[in-house]
Design brief:
alpha/beta; Metallo-beta-lactamase, Chain A; Rossmann fold; 2 domains; 7-stranded mixed beta sheet; 24% helix; Xnuc_lig_assoc; hydrolase
Amino acid sequence: MARRADQILFPTDSGLYCPDGDFYIDPLTPVPRALVTHGHSDHARPGHGAVLATRQTLEIMAIRYGEDFTAQKQVAEGPLRLGKVTVSFHPAGHILGSAQILITPDDGPRILNSGDYCRTPNPVCLPWEPVDCDVFITEATFGLPVFRHPDPLAEARRLLASMAEFPERPHLVGVYALGKAQRLIALVRQAGHQEPIALHGALQRLCDYHIAQGIDLGPLVPATDAKGAQLVLAPPSAFASPWVQRFRDPVLSYASGWMTVRARARQRGVELPLVISDHVDWPQLTATIRELSPQEVWITHGAEDGLMRWCAMEGVPARPLRLVGYGDEPE
C-alpha cells in the first residue's frame, strides 16, 4: 500500500524532513544533510554537514558565508538517488540558481517543494518550470487577492520617468543584494538606461558574480565614486544609516512586491514605490495550483489562511505547515 505524503516529508523544529532520504529542505538550524532551494539567507544557512543545491546556489552561499560554509558540497545535476527516494531540481524563476525540489518515493506520492518561485519572466535567472506532482508545497508570501503585481518593465520605466522629471535629484533605490539588485539593473537597461549605475558596497560582490555568469548588467560604479550618477542602488537598511546623508535631496525608492501596500511605503519614507516582486502574486499563485492540479497543497509561509480558504472553495485539499523562520531575507 502506498504511503501518505506526510509519512515521506513532514515538518520538524529544523524544517521539512524526509526520513527515507535522511535530509532536510531549507533547514532552519544546522543538520547533517540539507537540500537548499536558493541562496537567500532565510532558506540557505551555513553550518550543515552536507549541502545539495544547484551549482549557482552553492557558489552564492560560498560568496556570502565563505568557502567552508559546509563540510561537503554536492551539485544537483539530474535525478539523484538519496536513500529510498529520488530527488530532482527544477528552475523556480525566483533568483539566480533557484530551484524547486521534487521528491519521488518508491511507494508514495510525488512531492514538489517550490521554495520561493516566480512566473513573471526574470532576465537574470532561468524561468519557472512546471513539474508534475501529487503534492504541491507552495509559499504564499503574497497570498491575498489584493496582490496583483504590475509589469516590472513598466515599473522600471516609471523609475526612468521620475529621473527625467527630476534630473537634479539622485534616485536611491532600496534593493536586496541577491536577486532584486541585478533584476532591477537588467530591467532599467531593457527600458533604455545605459548610463553608469552606482552601487552601495554591499551589492558589488553579487553583481560581479552575476556578470561572471554571463549576465550583462552594463556599466556599474561604486557609490563612493559616483560623480553625477543619478541612479544609486543600496540595501534598504542603508536608508536608516549615515551613508544616505552624502546625497543631497534624494528621491527615495524601494523595489518590492510589498510596495503594493502604500502604508509600508509611507512608513519607510519612500517617495517612489516600485512594485517589483520575485514571488508569485495572487493570480499567478492560484493559476499555478490550477495548472499543476495536485491532489493536495501544503502552504509553507505567508498568507496561509487566505490561500487555505481559496483551496477550500476550489475543492483542493490543503494544509498549512506553519513553518517559522521564512519570509523576506534579513537586510
